[in-house]
Amino acid sequence: MPAPRKPAPQRKAAAAVSQPSEEAAASCSASKRILIADDDPDVHALLRAALESPGRRIESVYDGQAALRAVKTSAYDLVLTDLNMPGLDGMTLLERIREVRPTTRAVVMTVASTPENVVRAIREKAFSYFSKPFTLSAVQEMVERALSGSDAADDIQVLSARPHWLGLRLRCKMETAGRIVQFIRELGMDLSAAEQDQVATAFREILLNAIEHGAGGDPEKRVFITYVRTKRAALYYVRDPGKGFSFDELTHAAVSNPEGSPVEHAEIREKMGMRPGGFGIMMTRQLVDELIYNEHGNEVLLIKYLDRERPE
């Protein structure tokens, strides 16, 4: 977590991004360029220390207008932006980045997260979204994904973008799954940290099953997800393009183990030449309040009750 905010350095000097010489520009031509836009110097220091590595060039600005000027002047591979900044807020900056540099990826960070901001960030094609204080390892992983991935403009298609009803159509790619899981985690902001992790883990397991098994890992296929928030519950729906499955056929999964035989499925997986595992559905059932499949097994609903009391 960043230390208490210190006075920002001189804005005139801090907000400017120095222009490299021709020699320096040539030597950095293959580097990944990252721009950090935040009015808190401590956040810059924290992110720079966490993200610096060979082959990366990190630059800093301290307000939204300076960030927009930098993006207009130079092409960046990734922009990390705060939401609440002087001059130009981060969400408006995100919109302008989409206009002037549509291929530049952007990660939103904020201390004042709301469901409206999360949904708007998805609509504006943010690569990811983090509430402060964030976990550095999670940001490091997402930045690595942003700099090395090859997402297409239509990897995430928005069907409904309301804070209490989010509908998305996703390309069946592992990278896309990782991004959406982070957004879903952020939508559960009124849950405890432990509950956020549990819901995100359960949703990730179901989504990966949909991509790996339902779609066969084919990036040309799509999976549909819907998040619905009511006063008493959060519902997470996933539909994959596959034919589904029957629980009677899941002898290789732990959920089908007979009582008193907790590892029978592992022996079956070994005989079938499958990798160790098979605990996904059983684990997911322990992480949410209800897990419901349709008749064919290609649609699933996860339910997390918010009033801490499961209705009869």
Walk me through this protein's architecture.
With 312 residues, the protein is α/β, with parallel strands linked by helices. It folds into two domains: 1-149, Response regulator (Rossmann fold); 151-312, Heat Shock Protein 90 (2-Layer Sandwich). 37% of the residues lie in helices and 21% in strands. It contains eleven helices and eleven strands. The protein has helices at 11-14, 22-27, 41-51, 64-73, 90-100, 115-123, 136-148, 174-187, 193-214, 264-271, 280-287, and strands at residues 32-37, 56-61, 78-82, 105-110, 128-131, 156-162, 165-171, 222-229, 233-239, 290-293, 299-305. The strands form two sheets. It has a six-stranded antiparallel sheet with strand order 6-7-8-9-11-10, covered by helices on one side. Strands 2-1-3-4-5 form a five-stranded parallel sheet, with helices on both faces. Strand 1, helix 3 and strand 2 (56-61) form a beta-alpha-beta unit. The two termini are 41 Å apart. 31% of the residues are buried.
Q: What does this entry show, briefly?
A:
The chain is an alpha/beta fold and 312 residues long. Helices cover 37% and strands 21% of the residues.
How are the strands of the largest sheet arranged?
Answer: 6-7-8-9-11-10
**Radius of gyration from CA coordinates:** 22 Å
Q: What's the helix-strand series?
A: HHEHEHEHEHEHEEHHEEHHEE
- N- to C-terminal separation? 41 Å
What's the structural domain tally? 2
Number of separate strands: 11
CATH architectural label of the largest domain: 2-Layer Sandwich
Give the integer mean of the pLDDT values. 83
Number of helices: 11
